[in-house]
Amino acid sequence: MLSLIQVLLLAIKIYTWIIIASAIFSWLYAFNVVNPRNQFISMIGNALYSLTEPALRPIRSILPDLGGIDISPIVLLLILFFVQQLIVNNLAPLAL
């Protein structure tokens, strides 16, 4: 049981880094720091988008329109941190 909890926590940490990478990539893309015509950059962008968009889309539909500011990654990170702490504080002691 403890191994399953550790794998779940690792998956949450990896997805957290994917969300952060996606946000940074979107900033780099928006300010033309990276070349959008480069095939490798395009593949990275598409992979990050396809990994994060299914989780961010429902949050974006709930949040009000803030103009050009997208805070849905921040909300998703807060949700992930909450779930992580919920697992650590409630499920991990039961597995010991």
What does the model show?
The chain has 96 residues and is mainly α. The chain has one domain. Helices cover 80% and strands 0% of the residues. It has three helices and no strands. The radius of gyration is 16 Å and the shape is globular.
Mean pLDDT: 93
Domain unit count: 1
Q: Count the helices. How many? A: 3
Strand fraction band?
under 5%
Termini Cα gap: 8 Å
Unreliable stretches: none
Helix content: over 70%
Rg for CA atoms: 16 Å
User: Biggest β-sheet: count, sense, barrel?
Assistant: none
Shape designation: globular
Overall number of strands? 0
Q: What are the secondary-structure elements, in order, as H or E?
A: HHH
Structural class by sheet pairing and helices: mainly alpha
Pfam families: CCB3_YggT (PF02325)
Keywords: Membrane, Transmembrane, Transmembrane helix
Protein name: YggT family protein
Family: Belongs to the YggT family.
